[in-house]
Specification:
- The chain is of the alpha/beta class.
- Helix content is 44%, strand content 14%.
- Helix 4 runs parallel beside helix 9 and helix 13 crosses helix 15.
- The longest helix has 22 residues.
- The radius of gyration is 20 Å and the shape is globular.
- The relative contact order is 0.13.
Length: 386
């Protein structure tokens, strides 16, 4: 597989020179300075592409060309936003950038409750505490009927949490769930937002009346609209699984499991309609057999995210080592069956002063460099055994 790295543009403190030195072959990035829904011009695309190539690498994957909320819920401006999207795709195709990672998650991109959960070895990882997420939903967001979405065990943990929660703890949850994990990737809420909870409530209202079937229909509508451009320029669209792969906050989630993946691939049966195989997102759901899914969908996978999660008995989950046997199995599948597919290491530990370098949540330098070394070793072992 092609070894790639998610890079957040010229303002990223991790530089292209640093990435070339650690064996990165391709860059995964976006034009973060262009607002969601606006056209990416050929000139802006080429400026980024030339910058990357001047450092001896290539722009392998766009992550992401954001799908506006109005496309997802079917707003009045959806037709124009899709036309803008098609124009951006055409400009990317003309520039030779032909793998596009996107998601169709309403409002919330990915969710964690703790961004620096301490490990026994002094490192820290991302963590999802189900009771803390329920506290955010029921006690901070105060979503009507939220309690009905949680099982008795989680509600019991929630009641215990209420006894110890502080105003600072509430601010931390808001920051972790809807600000720090969202704002740095063209998210709906920026770190400058002074009333993020109010903003978030308004975003949720956009999906009133949008259930699973309606969101599926809107995804199919979007994909059918853009496929002619994808075919013309040989562009591969690869949707990212929902993270976590669970129904949350009363929002429909439609890329969570085997049945969901099979549905959207069959709904638009074009080889350019494919999957970003994020082993981490899929493994955050105990219902998913991730190695089996890798084998089943390898031929429709256009991009791989190498990480894995451990789901705990109470429904919490945390990032696991990149040497987890399940991830080794996944890498073996793709290295054997899709040797040219772009792969990037994903969420990795904070370690060796990463927290002092300035980083985006989940995207440390030293932690990802260690992960890249681990995955590179697995790939080499697979190839040596062929």
């Amino acid at each position: 597989m092609e070894k790639t790295w998610r890079w957040f543009g010229p303002n990223d403190k991790i530089t292209l020179d640093m990435l070339r030195q650690i064996g990165v072959e391709g860059i995964v990035t976006s034009l973060h300075h262009i607002p969601n829904g606006e056209v990416w011009s050929y000139e802006e695309i080429m400026k980024m592409k030339n910058l990357i190539e001047s450092h001896g690498m290539r722009w392998s994957v766009v992550e992401s060309l954001p799908v506006s909320e109005s496309i997802k819920y079917g707003g009045a401006d959806r037709p124009q936003l899709i036309e803008n999207y098609k124009e951006s795709l055409a400009n990317l195709g003309k520039a030779g950038v032909k793998t596009i990672c996107y998601n169709f998650m309403p409002v919330l991109d990915w969710a964690r409750t703790d961004l620096e959960y301490p490990n026994g070895d002094g490192t820290s990882n991302l963590y999802f505490n189900k009771a803390e997420f329920a506290y955010f939903d029921c006690c901070i967001l105060k979503r009507e009927g939220a309690e009905k979405d949680y099982d008795a065990a989680t509600l019991a943990r929630l009641e215990e949490l209420k006894k110890s929660m502080t105003p600072e703890g509430e601010r931390r949850l808001v920051d972790n769930i809807i600000v720090k994990t969202q704002g740095f990737v063209n998210g709906n809420i920026s770190e400058d937002d002074t009333t993020p909870v109010d903003t978030f409530r308004e975003l949720l209202k956009l999906y009133d009346g949008i259930d699973r079937d309606k969101l599926r229909a809107n995804m199919k509508y979007f994909l059918e609209a853009i496929m002619p451009v994808c075919r013309e320029y040989d562009i591969n669209m690869c949707v990212h699984p929902d993270d976590p792969p669970l129904q949350i906050l009363g929002l429909p989630r439609i890329v969570t499991c085997d049945e969901d993946i099979e549905w959207f691939l069959n709904a638009v049966p074009d080889s350019h309609n494919g999957l970003t195989f994020c082993a981490g997102s899929l493994s955050a759901g105990a219902h998913n057999d991730v190695p089996a899914l890798a084998k089943k969908y390898a031929d429709r996978t256009h991009f791989v995210h190498a990480r894995i999660c451990n789901v705990l008995p109470d429904g919490d989950f945390k990032e696991s080592t990149h040497l987890d046997p399940r991830l080794i199995d996944v890498i073996n599948t793709f290295e054997t069956r899709r040797p040219g597919v772009p792969m990037r290491v994903d969420h990795a530990p904070l370690m060796l002063g990463d927290d002092k370098m300035g980083y985006n949540a989940g995207y440390s330098f030293h932690g990802r460099m260690l992960a890249l070394g681990m995955v590179s070793g697995i790939m080499a072992a697979v190839n040596n055994l062929k």
